[in-house]
């Protein structure tokens, strides 16, 4: 499959040390199958950083091959498990890390932090109960079309990507 990374520069070598913390699926190199989404992310990055130009870097990725040798977590939909995973990765007050090389699943709403804060305030100590997490999963729905993101979290996972310029 073909995946795209939108940024303010073309990526010729992936450096996980440059990845930002507290994203939906943790630190990693994020890609999408949706070219138009990658374009929007590239434009957003240029607007935020104020340097560079919108660039889309394409990669080839074989999921079946990766699943044979790596730990791959796939969230097919917004479940209680997905919501808790996103919440834990986004929480700046806890130290959370997962064991997956690659995580694939829906994109959370860009307003994640205030949504999670309001959610935790509303449910208190019951925030991690499955019935409440299902409510959080609905609250975190990205407005508009459903986008799936691919997060490559380890050096071994990065080796699965082939630059397709």
Short description:
The chain has 165 residues and is an alpha+beta fold.
Strand order of the largest sheet: 2-6-5-4
What fraction of the residues are assigned to beta strands by DSSP? 15-25%
Instruction: Give the biggest beta sheet.
Output: 4 strands, mixed
Number of strands: 7
- From the alpha-carbon coordinates, what is the Rg to the nearest angstrom? 16 Å
Uncertain residue segments? none
Ends distance? 14 Å
Individual helix count: 6
The H/E string reads EEHEHEHEHHEHE
**Total count of domains:** 1
Q: What structural category characterises the helix and strand content? A: alpha+beta
User: What is the mean pLDDT?
Assistant: 93
Q: If you had to describe this structure to a student in words, what would you say it looks like?
A:
The chain has 165 residues and is α+β, with helices and mostly antiparallel strands. It has one domain. The chain is 36% helix and 19% strand. The protein contains six helices and seven strands; from the N terminus they run ββαβαβαβααβαβ. The strands form two sheets. The protein has a four-stranded mixed β-sheet. It has a three-stranded antiparallel β-sheet with strand order 1-3-7. It is globular.
